[in-house]
Amino acid sequence: MNELSGWGRFPKIKTKELIPQLESELLEILRHSESYIPRGNGTSYGDSAINKNLTVTMTRMNRFLQWNQESGELVAESGVLIADIIDTFLPRGWFPYVTPGTKFVTLGGAIACDVHGKNHHKDGSFGNFVNWIEIFNNKNEVVRCSPDENSELYHWTIGGMGLTGVIIRCSIQLKKVESGWIKQQTVVNNNLNETLQSFYEHKESTYSVAWIDCLAKGQSFGRSILMLGEHAQKSEIDAKPANYPKRKNKKITFPFDAPSFLLNNFTVSAFNKLYFNLNKNKQSSYVDWDTYFYPLDSIGDWNRMYGKNGFFQLQCVLPREFSEQGYTKILSTIQNKSSGTFLAVLKDFGAGNGHLSFPKEGLTLALDFKASQKNIEVGKELTHIVNNLGGSFYLAKDAIMNSAQFNNDFNKEEFLKYRNSAIKSEQSIRIEL
Amino acid sequence: MSKNKTILIIGAKSDIAVAVAHKFASEGYNLQLAARNSSELDAVVSDLKIRYEINVSAYELDILKYETFSDFIDSLECLPDIALSAVGILGNQIDDEKSFPNSALVMRTNYEGPSLLLGEIANRFETRGSGSIIGISSVAGVRGRASNYIYGSAKSGFTSYLSGLRNRINKSGVNVLTVSPGFVYTSMTKNLDLPNLLTAQPSEVANKIFYSKKKNSVMTPFPWNIIMLIIRLIPEQLFIRIKL
User: Fold this and answer.
1) Which residue of B has its CA nearest to A25?
2) A270 CB near a chain B CB, below 8 Å?
3) Fewer CB within 10 A of the terminal residue: chain B, N end or C end?
4) Do B46 and A64 touch (CB under 8 A)?
5) What are the backbone angles phi and psi of residue A56, rounded to the nearest 5°?
6) Do A22 and B40 touch (CB under 8 A)?
7) What is the ipTM of this complex?
8) What are phi and psi of A270, to 5 degrees?
9) Best of B37, B48, B51 to disrupt the A interface by mutation (most A CBs within 10 Å)?
10) Phi, psi angle pair for B84, to nearest 5°
11) Per CB distance under 8 Å, which residues of B are interface residues toward A?
12) Do A88 and B40 touch (CB under 8 A)?
């Protein structure tokens, strides 16, 4: 038995974990298991990739199978990491179309969670660039699905949290880039209204993300720094040392679990003030891809910052017409009730993709909470606010919802036709998905 | 590509072998991978080719069939610069000590096969006047212990064979390196409860091998040097009373 948790280190659950290397080994395991969940690199936050009975970790099935340098099509096993893809193909002029905030996610996990990046409003989510998927389905067969072939299975698998079957391999499309540098522009917004307006004004920007100061009050309520980005062209970066810079080494690693008193409204508020003031004078600069897309990857084990009990994240999306009303309520609730919300990130979503995908037209906010009974209560209150406004939550982050709180406006009867009933996660049991 | 050096990896399906393949490929080596049921290597072969843009070829080889070894070496695209054996099976001491066939399989797989094959390749290297032989043995070969002496004795034989080969051949420009890993997180050890500090990742062993190419012998990870020195020095009178 092995204790597993998601990136949030909450909850921690004992399970048997198997890590097959060959497809034959994998299929042997799956055919003889009555209850299991596939797992990628364990970077979803909660319990969506843990099953108490058996967790099948795919990280050793991590081989590139075919590569087309002309078209940018990559066929690979599902345990390949985005980091591997960048290390290998960026020097050849190709980059993932969509990447989440860590490069240590597997392809299988990226598809199952239909992950998004800072360019959702322009390019959509990861699933938009998946040509086909080969999956161990609910009839115990390996089948290929794509927009043209077994298309319903394809659309239920993208964002389907691994519940339609184990993703074995897939074909994805990469994006041609001229360099590994991002031209970053910073926009300071002094209150919530400006913040929301700012996304609208810069909707043509390929990448955009706002860091929002949750604890600022009064006139500064909802102030933020919006960071815009474009892939730099070759001609722009002559002065840079390398056209395709390599991955940064980890600068520091969090060596121990931080004591629980370290994060409180006072320290976080001080940090936020500092961060805001440090960034508000920056305007335009070129940053390497690793620093731009994965600032937190440079701090090893940063999840230990929240202490030994771990943390959870809530990420919601609200329909656009309720952005101002909803986020005002959410930020006020945090200011009044919670302790130590460190990271709050706001992004813009375009239309959604898979039948179960999280992204929907509107603004999305991600909030970290130290795992404590008090914060779980705050989380539930926020869930209530979001649900009342017709919003929903990202299952890759969730660790606390129950089935009533899970906004399941999808065709459950149809889903059950494609769902593999042997596959269950602690989350899918909790929210009855 | 033709100027690149080539390494032959025997027993190429093992975790250490795959890690070695990655390390040498990342340093620009072309690869020859040999294993039983070599079609299971298809994904590994395509992966290494795509990742490192090098030549990779796979060969079918049964380490128990020494009568096929000469043809196998002749069938290689070129005589490699380095030949490495990562062949090995752990067996199950308690079952194997009561079974001739099981014991013989462990002995032949860990000792007879790798020794004979590397020995023949060494002869070819000697004729050419250059080359490196690398044998992955084990710290278990340092002294026979109750818990795994069938495996240990076979590894011990392999270590001795490599030592003698080195002694015979080093004047002809051929290097022989014996690698003795301690615990490594691999498929072979997945059912064992291993102490973290004394257990290496396959990639660490691979790195160590790459940078020790010119040496005679190496133990990895580091503390095993000391542990095995102590185990070797315990007087037999005392040793027989200890459960190891």
Assistant:
1) B40
2) no
3) N
4) yes
5) -105, 105
6) yes
7) 0.89
8) -65, -45
9) B51
10) -120, 135
11) 15, 40, 43-44, 46-47, 50-51, 187, 190
12) no
For residues A333-358, one letter each, b for 16 or more C-beta atoms within 10 angstroms of the residue's C-beta and e for the rest, the string is: ebbeebbbbbbbbbbbbbebbbbbbb
Chain A interface test: which of B18, B22, B46 (most A C-beta within 10 Å): B46
Distance CA(A274)–CA(A276), nearest Å, equals 5
According to the model, what pLDDT value does residue A339 have? 63
CA-wise closest residue to A44 among A367, A395, A405: A395
Joined together, the tokens standing for residue B215 give 């040496």
Q: Give the pLDDT band of residue B1 (cuts 50, 70, 90).
A: very low
Comparing C-alpha atoms, which of B75, B64, B78 is closest to residue B111? Answer: B64
**Residue appearing with tokens 């090995």:** B88
Check whether B2 has a pLDDT greater than 60: no
Residues in chain B: 244
Asked if A21 and B51 come within 8 Å (Cβ–Cβ), the reply is no
Verify whether the Cβ–Cβ distance B50 to A24 is below 8 Å: no
Give the length of chain A.
433
How far apart are the C-alpha atoms of A321 and A389, rounded to whole Å? Answer: 10
pLDDT tens figures, B19-32: 999 999 999 999 99
Total-model pTM: 0.91
Confidence of residue B13 (pLDDT cuts 50, 70, 90): very high
Residue A108: strand, helix, or coil: helix
Among left, alpha and beta (phi > 0; psi -120 to 50; other), residue A390 is left
Spatial separation of the C-alpha atoms in residues A58 and B240, rounded to whole Å: 44
Residue with tokens 């102030």, as numbered in its chain: A223
> What span, in angstroms and rounded, lies between the C-alpha atoms of A277 and A291?
19
- For residue range A351-369, what is the model confidence (pLDDT) as tens digits? 888 899 999 999 999 998 8
Chain B partners of A62 at a C-beta cutoff of 8 Å?
47
Whether residue A230 contacts residue A69, with contact meaning beta carbons closer than 8 Å, is answered with: no
Asked if A161 and A425 count as a contact pair (C-beta separation under 8 A), the reply is: yes
Say how far apart CA B64 and CA B68 lie, in whole Å.
9
Residues whose CB falls within 8 Å of the CB of residue A1, separated by 6 or more in sequence, listed in order? A14, A15, A16
Instruction: Tell me the two tokens of residue B59.
Output: 């060969």
- Which one, of B104, B116, B119, lies nearest residue B151 by Cα? B104
Residue among A98, B121, A28, A26 nearest A39 (CA): A26
pLDDT digits (tens, 9 = 90+) for A63-106: 999 999 999 999 999 999 999 999 999 999 999 999 999 999 99
